[in-house]
Structure to design on (216 residues):
């Protein structure tokens, strides 16, 4: 009798854990969907109807420019390149915790880069090249420890490169050309020993080129 009771308890616990995992997965899916809808809502102009498929007629993983992981229905990639999108970049994008690539280059995004992007600890590629973004580069991006490609060139960014970016030891490409960045070329560039591409032309850097660049 005790054996049967124990077996029933074990089955109950297994079902409870399974349902809990399922609920958590569904919550994650809904978070991704709501985050994408918040991104769409912030867009003021979409002349090419790039986001027209972003509605409830199909699953959000089938929306244009969206890719999901193989093991789960969580967004891993957003790629909306050259679609004439105009509007601010929604900070709710940072709620998609499985996101690895955020590629919205060659559009007309304006406003500042949301510091919340630093919450995307799985992010490997951030490409906001050729938009109308302004303000400073958020120091919080340094929290994206897996970041390999950071491309912010051809915007209207100002200020110094945050010292915190020196923590991005996996960085392979850094593109910050044609902004209005100022200050000295930082010593922490020598930390990027995996860097293969560096574009920093047409800014307002001053001082000498640091010897630490030889470490790259």
């Amino acid at each position: 009798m005790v054996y049967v009771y124990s077996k029933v308890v074990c089955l109950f616990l297994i079902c409870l854990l399974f349902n809990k995992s399922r609920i958590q997965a569904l919550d994650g899916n809904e978070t991704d969907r709501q985050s994408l809808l918040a991104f769409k809502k912030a867009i003021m102009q979409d002349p090419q109807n790039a986001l027209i498929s972003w509605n409830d007629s199909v699953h959000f993983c089938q929306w244009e420019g969206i890719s999901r992981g193989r093991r789960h229905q969580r967004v891993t990639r957003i790629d909306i390149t050259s679609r004439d999108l105009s509007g601010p970049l929604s900070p709710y994008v940072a709620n998609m915790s499985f996101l690895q690539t955020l590629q919205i280059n060659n559009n007309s995004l304006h406003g500042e880069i949301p510091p919340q992007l630093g919450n995307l600890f799985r992010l490997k590629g951030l490409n906001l090249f050729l938009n109308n973004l302004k303000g400073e580069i958020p120091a919080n991006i340094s929290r994206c420890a897996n970041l390999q490609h950071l491309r912010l060139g051809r915007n209207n960014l100002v200020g110094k490169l945050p010292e915190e970016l020196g923590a991005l030891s996996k960085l392979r490409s850094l593109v910050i050309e044609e902004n209005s960045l100022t200050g000295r070329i930082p010593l922490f560039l020598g930390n990027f020993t995996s860097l293969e591409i560096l574009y920093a032309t047409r800014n307002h850097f001053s001082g000498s080129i640091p010897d630490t660049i030889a470490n790259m």
